[in-house]
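2024-03-11 09:14:02 INFO receiving multi-entity request
2024-03-11 09:14:02 INFO entity count = two
2024-03-11 09:14:03 INFO echoing inputs for audit
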Amino acid sequence: MLHVNENYARIKPTYLFAEISSRVAEHQKSGNAERIIRLGIGDVTEPLAPAVTAAMHKAVDDEAGRENFHGYGPEQGYQFLRDKIAEIDFAARGVDIKPNEILVSDGAKCDCGNIQELFSNDVKVAVTDPVYPVYVDTNVMAGRHDITLLRCGKENGFVPSPSSCDADIVYLCFPNNPTGAVATKAQLQEWVDWANAGKRLIIFDAAYEAFIRTDSIPHSIFECSGARTCAIEMRSYSKTAGFTGVRCGYTVVPSELCAYAADGTSVSLKAMWTRRQTTKFNGASYITQRGAEAIYSPEGMEQTKSTIDFYLENARLVREALASLGYEAFGGVDSPYVWVDVKGPSWDFFDRLLKEANVVTTPGAGFGAAGEGFIRISAFNSRENVLEAIDRISRVL
Amino acid sequence: MLHVNENYARIKPTYLFAEISSRVAEHQKSGNAERIIRLGIGDVTEPLAPAVTAAMHKAVDDEAGRENFHGYGPEQGYQFLRDKIAEIDFAARGVDIKPNEILVSDGAKCDCGNIQELFSNDVKVAVTDPVYPVYVDTNVMAGRHDITLLRCGKENGFVPSPSSCDADIVYLCFPNNPTGAVATKAQLQEWVDWANAGKRLIIFDAAYEAFIRTDSIPHSIFECSGARTCAIEMRSYSKTAGFTGVRCGYTVVPSELCAYAADGTSVSLKAMWTRRQTTKFNGASYITQRGAEAIYSPEGMEQTKSTIDFYLENARLVREALASLGYEAFGGVDSPYVWVDVKGPSWDFFDRLLKEANVVTTPGAGFGAAGEGFIRISAFNSRENVLEAIDRISRVL
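2024-03-11 09:21:47 INFO inference complete, emitting structure
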């Protein structure tokens, strides 16, 4: 008989953002809704950089003729893109990552979700609480139900310490989604030392790296000494360059990084991830990869930086407005997310802002128990909408 | 300790096409190579249809401004595309598939690889031999090592019968890769009846559906009566519309299709696949989906049909040339692949064509034991190259 994977029954049937959509839809049906301003899901609103769209037009033209037509590309990504990534995201910051240690994909969500396939079902997994749900759900779907939660609250500045963590794999995301917290180099180094000491792995999600403006904050786990033997890093162009609808990201797996067979033999994780990707994936779109390459042109870098500066200014406005209303607001400095202590249940506060201010946020409780009492406000919107949302919120609170 | 998924060690370390590439590279290094003509991997060579590139240019322009910017789309695909698929790929052929039973993805390879996640590790899987390796490798990677092989040879016209098959899941691909064989409606109906009788599932890969020209051959498993309760179908724009580098396909999961929990409870597979995709995938590129939509415009349909006709004429030329040289050649009628009985070991024949004719084919043995003694010749190339390849092969054989 056709038996299902019963682990699917152990994940919550609705995804956080589906619940939010349904509450928003219900509010709109109530007839009391003004124009809704969405500071919830964290989708970008600003257009792609002109350098990127120019490159994509050219790539579409390539696909329109026999001469420059590109069919199947390398599953690992085109060399032209991997070279740029190695040079500009890593070498330019003094980090030695080779192009062949970079595997391009159709987005960090896929990579974050798929990476757990490389490991035995008996590995112990730890995540932060609050957490981006994908790390948890994809492990539960694979049969790993006993996941350690590392509490992140005001008491530790939303950055957990490895001191009492006995997991084999930890997922860390900095700048953090949802809290907007960043980790210092010393804090990340502690995790790297912990991982190396116990043959453990850090899965480092650096999707929001481009928002870092504070000089001392590391952009990559590979800025820490020893990270090449204990870390995998994911990057995304979704927030960096507005690629949420275009779909591109990459994963870095250093050549010397290993995991272990039951008999103790070491196994290259780069070889395993390459095998996973070449077997189950067929590369990111050529047009997308040409667009991503253009992010690294001088104009592309200037244009994407300017869009991120714009979102960061939105974040500053939100953070300062909430603070002036008497709420403790975290994040929003090296991050597009402001994490607000709402002094009560987060879904109640969410409903209040939705119903009274017609502003959509994300309730912290949706990211885990330790998110209870907070909401996440995203800086992804036009200046006009952000100012209007601040104005409405100020009138309500 | 960080234990690996040891199932990865049970798949062959190199993928068929990697082995071919390495033999080609070695031949080129030998200094004896003329210009190589590739009739191997099955990648398309003709450009995208003008209707498609026009739609993609427009979509890039959408992404270049705030007004029509598209960020995160539905993970299941945009409604505009799902509606067209339901209407033109199904309703127009008398098949009732609803748009909400269609999940758009970045390609059939991903869907074929990921679908097995929905099932328990104890389900019994059957595949044809020869077979597209992805069905096997992805099951082995998940821990299903004991896979039943359904021999496809001249004796059964390369279409297996379900009579002695006791698997829970069977992967069927028609028009077939690699043999180019098609299944009649009666043959598929036998499989559907077998599946329904035993609460089994057919995973039907219809990636080459657009090559069918014989009226009586079904384009979809859902043309068979009862298929809605026992089948999932995958489609791809890779060969249909030259999207190998653009990446788009879709999977059809009927609403009433179920699998079973250990206690016998039925579970909707559409709900499970939706959960899988919303958790681990973030939708196909907006630009890609706009391109795919344009395939269904009157011009798009005419243009893509004309390209497929062109490849089919290539296939005819190859098939007839091989036949006139005294080789039994199969397929190549409703399929871009010609499957040739080479009267000896297929890797030897591959090497001979590579070294003496500088033509790359695919050795049948690479698709399974029953592929030994055959080679696959692909019709994906320019007319000039196909004629030149035929000429060279004729001089060698």
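2024-03-11 09:21:48 INFO post-check: The radius of gyration of chain B is 21 Å.
2024-03-11 09:21:48 INFO post-check: The mean pLDDT of chain B is 96.
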